[in-house]
Amino acid sequence: MSREKTLVKKTIIYAIGNFSSKILAYVMVLVYTYFIDQKEMGYYDLILTTVSLVQPIIIFQMNDGVYRFLVEGVNKEGVLSTGFRFLCCTTVVAEICLLIFSTIHYLEYTGLIALYLASTMIYLYFQDSIRGLGDSKLYAFCGVFNSVCMLICEVIGLVGLKLGVAALLASKTIANIACIILLFIKEEQLRCVWKNKFDRTVFRTLFHYSAPLVPNTICWWIVNSSDRYIILFFLGAAYNGLFSVAYKFPTILTTVTSIFYLAWQESAIKEYNSPNRNVFFSNIFRKYYILLFSICICAIPATKIVIELFVSIEYKTAWIYTGFLYLGAVFSALSSFLGMGYQISQETKRSVMTTVLAALINAAVNLGAIHFIGLQAASLSTFVSYLFLFIVRIQHTKRYFILKVNWGQFIWLTILNILLIATVIFTDSLLLSLGLCIAGGAYLFWLNQELIAPVVNTVLKRFKLK
After folding, report:
1. Where in the cell is it found (predicted)?
2. pTM over the 0.85 mark
């Protein structure tokens, strides 16, 4: 099987596991708007944002180190058990800190937050362990199982019992715990986490690889999520709820990128030392950015239509802030692609500088513009910071691999998206948005013929055989 086909196969498998949960989040946001007001939505979003901040500190990015060395087949049992025992210790410390904080400062839903935090850490660790062990099908199934569990619990708690934010936190926790139990039962190698002792030599290896990723991940968090705290301070919790809804719509794009990244991470590690690496990487990068930009072209006008027609009136203006968030998601994905060089070469320290600078730019643009353009500053700062990160990393990446890029096409697609954002914002016609969406769909199919044609031909052949 060729490298491209292997990458496509892995992407499809990971899509099964991730697409369900991501699309569920995309659809359920429409439901949230009818059962949770802006202020509650803002508080719920802050909980998730804060958990995502402390996550790399608690897990110390050991999950990335574990995955990296499991792929290479290095002392699997020692890696799994050492990483897990370290995670258990840091999680206990985190729970104690949360308890102390809640006694000093009142925190609503403290118990649910504590359970959600612990279950998220363990589930994330088991997920990356499964990927590292090569059981991508179990990983995919677990993603679907998690989505189904969460959906059932959310419908019961939110729609039936009307528990609001408590229902959302409980649903996520229950789904995580169910998946942890499932993975522990189905994957025999995971059971060694209890049997094997803590290996100091293995820990030092994991720590050397993972430690530089912690500040790097925190900086990614600053770029992605610090906007919530700036919005809360300058504009209030209600605006944070509005931005939270706007931020969830680019999920359809981040779904594609997160699925691809999982498959690409494994392929890139294995193909890094191949003689025609640069050709392979360049080909994948070209197809990747064309797909992302073209999806963005369709999604910008489509989001306006969806929010205007299906979202509660309290959140009707959320579409205004989605355009630059979509573009930010594109350049975030491309920056992650380029950042693979740091991981493959195990030079993870070099990635920190680029994300630190991007984080500073994000905060500076946000703080400088929020008084003039309000909530739009959060969207614009996200785009600008990721654009800067991409520009820096495209230079850094020459140390690891050389990409041949059609910059004329790349710049044109970027400008086209910016013009589309302006058109949608400054015109108040849903009919025009519908027309732009249809034209964008046609353009998407034309640009991605190399990807779409083989799939269509395969489907037609199988249909003829039947």
Report:
1. Cell membrane
2. no
Q: What share of the chain is helix, strand, coil (3-state, %, to 5)?
A: 85, 0, 15
pLDDT in tens, the chain (466 residues): 455 566 666 666 655 555 555 666 666 666 777 788 878 877 888 888 888 888 888 888 888 888 878 877 667 788 888 888 888 899 999 999 999 998 888 888 899 999 999 999 999 899 888 888 878 788 878 888 888 898 889 889 988 888 888 998 999 999 999 999 999 888 888 877 777 778 788 888 888 888 777 777 777 777 777 788 888 888 887 888 888 888 888 877 877 777 777 677 767 767 777 778 788 888 889 989 999 999 999 999 999 998 888 888 888 888 999 999 999 999 999 988 888 777 676 666 677 778 888 888 998 999 999 989 999 999 999 999 999 999 998 988 888 788 899 999 999 999 999 999 999 999 888 899 999 999 999 999 999 888 777 666 665 665 565 5
Domain that residue 445 falls in: 213-456
Q: Which residues contact 58 (CB under 8 A, 6 or more apart)?
A: 87, 90, 91, 93, 94, 117, 121
Return the closest-CA partner of residue 24 out of 307, 251, 305, 286: 251
Residue 87 maps to a domain: no
- Check if the beta carbon of residue 179 is closer than 8 Å to that of residue 142: yes
CA distances from 101 to 94, 117, 237 (A): 10, 15, 21
Assess if residue 443 is contained within a domain. Answer: yes
Smallest CA-to-CA distance from 348 within 137, 60, 32 is with 60
Q: Is residue 342 part of a domain?
A: yes
Domain count, the chain: 1
Nearest-angstrom CA–CA distance, 402 and 283: 11
Residue 83 belongs to some domain of the structure: no
